[in-house]
Design brief:
By secondary structure, this protein is mainly α. It folds into 2 domains: about 70 residues, DNA Binding (I), subunit A (Orthogonal Bundle), CATH 1.10.30; about 70 residues, DNA Binding (I), subunit A (Orthogonal Bundle). The protein contains 6 helices and no strands. Helix 1 packs across helix 2, helix 1 packs across helix 3 and helix 4 packs across helix 6. The two termini are about 45 Å apart.
Length: about 170
């Protein structure tokens, strides 16, 4: 088995809701297993799939409605979780001088070269930044320094708040 790379799941994150088919399968799995105790997982899954396909619209609608209710509950819980996680994550780091420059210049470049891909625009921005006059570059670095100071103040406030809440 190949191990997945990427972010680790937060163990406190809400569990995703079951689909209509999974809700149906949960009600029928035991009965199918009782009818044929030697049935493998694959055979049970095939039988469930076949029953689901044969299911009438009225019966299927019940499970779809249940799934929709579960999804609504999940959406509410997830919204609270995301809000809580955002509050715990602290202030956002300030952009670098180059990103401030890029934010200002990107729309003008895209206007001049509407067919340009993202990578092409990035190359143009990199070249412009490299050839930018020192005085003009200083302007972006000053803004960066100001934003960095604001970030440091916000970070200290956030750390104090976190320390208070953990006591």
């Amino acid at each position: 088995m190949v191990k997945k790379k990427g972010r680790k799941k937060n163990p406190n994150a809400p569990k995703r809701p079951m689909t209509a088919f999974l809700l149906f399968a949960a009600t029928r799995r035991k009965e199918i297993k009782l009818a044929d105790p030697t049935a493998t997982v694959t055979r049970v899954a095939k039988a469930l799939g076949e029953e689901w396909r044969q299911l009438g619209d009225v019966e299927r609608a019940k499970f779809i409605q249940l799934a929709e209710k579960e999804k609504e509950k999940y959406d509410l819980v997830k919204a609270k979780f995301v809000k809580m996680k955002a509050a715990e994550s602290g202030p956002k780091r300030p952009p670098t001088a180059f990103f401030l420059f890029a934010k200002e210049r990107r729309p003008k470049i895209q206007e001049r070269f509407p067919e340009a891909r993202v990578t092409d625009v990035a190359k143009i921005l990199g070249n412009e930044w490299k050839n930018l006059a020192t005085s003009e570059r200083r302007r972006f670095k000053d803004v960066q320094e100001e934003l960095k100071k604001e970030y440091e103040v916000a970070k200290l406030k956030w750390l104090k708040k976190i320390r208070k809440s953990s006591l």
